[in-house]
């Protein structure tokens, strides 16, 4: 009997020819990721060794990644203390894949891992974050665990008592219409499966639409599989995976690629025709409360958020900037943009997206989780409604249980920022190119252009530097 | 025997059990104060010790969905609460086992706030209504961690045995 992607990966990780669904295995871990909650992991890790007379040392410091993203820069002395504790631990244990609060290599863990070349096809990856499902976009089996579980991984180098999950096959065919994005595919799918429809299962993505999709889009899909309860999402690695690894992540040695067996057995097959899809909205307060954008027409929002590990990548910023170019964010709206990593931030600066956002009236924030989990920035007032490109709209998620969060793609969020109400991006007309304001602009822009030319060099340098450090980190 | 002190619906996320804005608090000794903090009345009852250890929270499907934050399990352990749900989300279930939260999967459970429940021979017995509901046992591998007293003692044993 053939094996699915996840069966094949787990079989390799335990050195067996095959594994069956529901077998209990203890696979070796290739990469173990944490963020600020590493502070709790450290606490539990030390507990394991308490009174044993054995020194607490992690199994392999080169396989642990710690990325500060949830509360950066620290919002409180408590967080600062946690971060300090982690820095000391990182230094003591010799952990190399550490990304502190920095403008050259910082960002959200689920973007730092792929762009730094830490994620590789065929790996078993665990992270103390539920959206660790993201890394399946590179063909890994990647899933979220709790802090105590991670402490055991740090000690043992393997993950205990994993039941081999069954797999749901999702086949997406057809060309996505303009302004319909990967986010709309995954919201639609979650609506179909429900918030627990894939609990304890893996979602494996197939079809022409996925084949043509960039890794950035695949990250969106896998990121949100957990919102259907899935243990992980996975895209069988292909030519696009290799392109991303080589040209964007700087990986030199690409591991041997493999896909599922042709006769793999799936628990369920879901087919989606991408060409018929419309922009989707997840209504409060569950992610599976999904309707086409038309159903939300006219709902006034006070905050628009573009960013997060779901939709804070360059293509998201590009589409949002293209919609906002020459337009203004409605006076009734606060628009917050937070690029998923500082590398993306720098690219967005170079491409002029940051300027477009700021001229439109948006606030561009530092890379990190920002308003996504409501702990740090961009909290909502009682009765506020927000439209966000993030992945969760649970009660209280954006810092206030008496507010509402709607979820959408970056295109829908940008279109809605202009009108101040949830708006179908397909109805937005580009800014008219009248001659007068253009002339006026030229006058203002000219002296700036000179400044730009001077400023350009250091920007370039820092991008190069970011690449360099990323490469260093990979070794 | 214990009383049902909170009855909840489906898809109760970890943001409801332990809101993200308290994530800087990590130690199991400190997390209980923020259990269900946005339900001010219930949180107050916990803090003023009006709720006895061993009391039950009864929930519908997919309890503990969302974030992997372990605080959502450890904050309930601190008050000695037990959770019965129709089913649990994967990470929350695993976290509960790891940190020793008493949880029971009971797909047909019927109980109201104030009912007295007892766990007996693989069943939840509702003493108030007189009905019983079968429990879905945990997979054996997970039971081993519970029997060891949680994942920390379980792993400690492995470390001492030199099993890496
Ligand atoms: S951006 Fe939001 S969902 Fe993503 S890792 Fe940060 S807090 Fe979690």
Sketch the major β-sheet of chain B. Answer: 7 strands, mixed
Q: Provide the β-strand percentage band of chain A.
A: 15-25%
Q: Tell me the CATH superfamily of chain B.
A: Aconitase, domain 4
Most extensive chain-chain interface: A-B, 57 and 48 residues
Shape of chain A: globular
Distance between the termini of chain B: 41 Å
Q: Based on the coordinates given, report the CATH architecture of chain B.
A: Alpha-Beta Barrel
> How confident is the prediction overall: mean pLDDT of chain B?
94
| Named CATH topology of chain B | Aconitase, domain 4
How would you characterize this protein structure?
The complex is a heterodimer of chains A (475) and B (164). Chain A folds into three domains: 271 residues, Aconitase, domain 3; 148 residues, Aconitase, domain 3; 38 residues. Helices cover 37% and strands 15% of the residues of chain A. Chain A is built from 15 helices and 18 strands. A five-stranded parallel β-sheet of chain A has the order 4-3-2-5-6, sandwiched between helices. In chain A, strands 16-15-14-17-18 form a five-stranded parallel β-sheet. In chain A, helix 6 packs parallel to helix 8. Chain A is globular and about 70 Å long. The C terminus of chain A is likely disordered. With 164 residues, chain B is of the alpha/beta class. Chain B has one domain: Aconitase, domain 4. Chain B contains six helices and seven strands; from the N terminus they run E-H-H-E-H-E-H-E-E-E-E-H-H. In chain B, helix 3 crosses helix 4. Chain B is globular. In chain B, 46% of the residues are buried. The model of chain B has no long low-confidence stretch (mean pLDDT 94). The structure holds iron/sulfur cluster (SF4).
Reconstruct the topology from this structure:
The complex is a heterodimer of chains A (475) and B (164).
Chain A: H1 5-13, E1 24-25, E2 31-34, H2 38-49, E3 64-67, H3 77-93, E4 97-99, H4 109-115, E5 124-127, E6 141-144, H5 147-156, E7 162-163, E8 166-173, H6 182-193, E9 201-206, H7 208-212, H8 215-224, E10 232-234, H9 239-248, E11 268-273, E12 280-282, E13 290-292, E14 303-307, H10 308-311, H11 314-324, E15 334-338, H12 342-350, H13 353-360, E16 363-364, E17 385-388, E18 404-407, H14 410-419, H15 435-474
Parallel strand pairs in A: 2-3, 2-5, 3-4, 5-6, 8-9, 8-11, 9-10, 14-15, 14-17, 15-16, 17-18
Antiparallel strand pairs in A: 1-7, 12-13
Helix pairs in contact in A: 2-5, 6-8, 11-13, 11-14, 12-15
Chain B: E1 2-7, H1 14-17, H2 40-47, E2 56-59, H3 71-77, E3 82-85, H4 90-99, E4 102-105, E5 116-120, E6 123-126, E7 131-134, H5 140-148, H6 151-160
Helix pairs in contact in B: 3-4
The complex binds iron/sulfur cluster.
Iron/sulfur cluster (SF4) binds next to helix 10 of chain A.
């Amino acid at each position: 009997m053939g094996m699915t992607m996840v069966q094949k990966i787990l079989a390799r990780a335990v050195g067996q020819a095959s594994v069956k669904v529901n077998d209990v295995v203890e696979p070796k871990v290739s990469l173990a990721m944490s963020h600020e909650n590493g502070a709790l992991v450290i606490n539990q890790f030390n507990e394991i060794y308490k009174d044993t007379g054995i020194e607490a040392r992690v199994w392999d410091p080169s396989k642990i990644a710690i990325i500060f993203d949830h509360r950066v820069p620290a919002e409180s002395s408590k967080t600062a203390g946690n971060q300090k504790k982690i820095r000391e631990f990182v230094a003591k244990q010799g952990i190399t894949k550490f990304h502190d609060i920095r403008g050259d290599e910082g960002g959200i863990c689920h973007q730092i891992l792929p762009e730094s070349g830490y994620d590789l096809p065929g790996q078993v990856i665990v992270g103390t974050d539920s959206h660790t499902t993201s890394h399946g976009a590179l063909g890994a089996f990647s899933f979220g665990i709790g802090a105590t579980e991670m402490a055991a991984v740090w000690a043992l180098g393997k993950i205990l008592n994993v039941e081999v999950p069954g797999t749901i096959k999702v086949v997406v065919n057809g060309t996505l219409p303009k302004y319909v994005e990967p986010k709309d595919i995954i919201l639609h799918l979650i609506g179909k499966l429900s918030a627990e429809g894939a609990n304890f299962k893996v979602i494996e993505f197939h079809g022409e639409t996925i084949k043509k999709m960039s890794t950035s889009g695949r990250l969106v899909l896998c990121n949100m599989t957990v919102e259907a309860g899935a243990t992980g999402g996975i895209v069988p690695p292909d030519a696009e995976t290799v392109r991303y690894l080589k040209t964007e992540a700087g990986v030199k040695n690409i591991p041997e690629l493999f896909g599922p067996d042709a006769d793999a057995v799936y628990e369920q097959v879901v087919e989606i025709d991408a060409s018929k899809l419309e922009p989707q909205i997840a209504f409060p307060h569950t992610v599976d409360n999904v309707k086409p954008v038309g159903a939300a027409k006219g709902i006034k929002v006070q905050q628009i958020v573009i960013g997060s590990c779901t939709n804070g990548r360059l293509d998201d910023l590009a589409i949002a900037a293209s919609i906002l170019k020459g337009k203004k964010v409605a006076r009734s709206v606060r628009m917050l943009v937070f690029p998923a990593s500082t590398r993306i931030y720098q690219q967005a600066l170079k491409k002029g997206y940051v300027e477009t956002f700021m001229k439109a009236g948006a606030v561009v924030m530092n890379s990190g989780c920002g308003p996504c989990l409501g702990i740090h920035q961009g909290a909502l007032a009682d009765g506020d409604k927000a439209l966000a490109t993030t992945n969760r709209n649970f009660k209280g998620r954006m810092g206030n249980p008496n507010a509402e969060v709607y979820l959408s793609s970056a295109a829908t969020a940008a279109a809605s920022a202009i009108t101040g109400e949830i708006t179908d991006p397909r109805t937005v007309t580009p800014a008219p190119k009248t001659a007068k304001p253009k002339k006026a602009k030229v006058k203002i822009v000219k002296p700036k252009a000179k400044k730009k030319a001077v400023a350009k060099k250091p920007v370039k340098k820092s991008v190069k530097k970011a690449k360099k450090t990323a490469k260093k980190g990979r070794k | 025997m214990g009383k049902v002190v909170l009855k909840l619906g489906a898809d109760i996320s970890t943001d409801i059990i332990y809101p993200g804005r308290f994530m800087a608090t990590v130690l199991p000794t400190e997390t209980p104060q923020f259990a269900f903090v946005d339900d001010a009345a219930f949180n107050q009852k916990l803090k003023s010790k009006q709720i006895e250890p061993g009391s039950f929270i009864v929930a519908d499907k997919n309890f503990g969905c969302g974030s992997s934050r372990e605080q959502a399990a450890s904050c309930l352990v601190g008050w000695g609460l037990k959770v019965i749900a129709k089913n649990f989300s994967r990470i929350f279930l695993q976290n509960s086992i790891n940190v020793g939260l008493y949880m029971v999967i009971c797909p047909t459970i019927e109980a109201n706030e104030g009912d007295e429940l007892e766990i007996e021979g693989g069943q939840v017995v509702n003493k108030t209504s007189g009905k019983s509901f079968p429990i879905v046992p945990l997979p054996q591998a997970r039971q081993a961690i519970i029997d060891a007293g949680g994942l920390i003692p379980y792993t400690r044993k492995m470390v001492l045995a030199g099993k890496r």
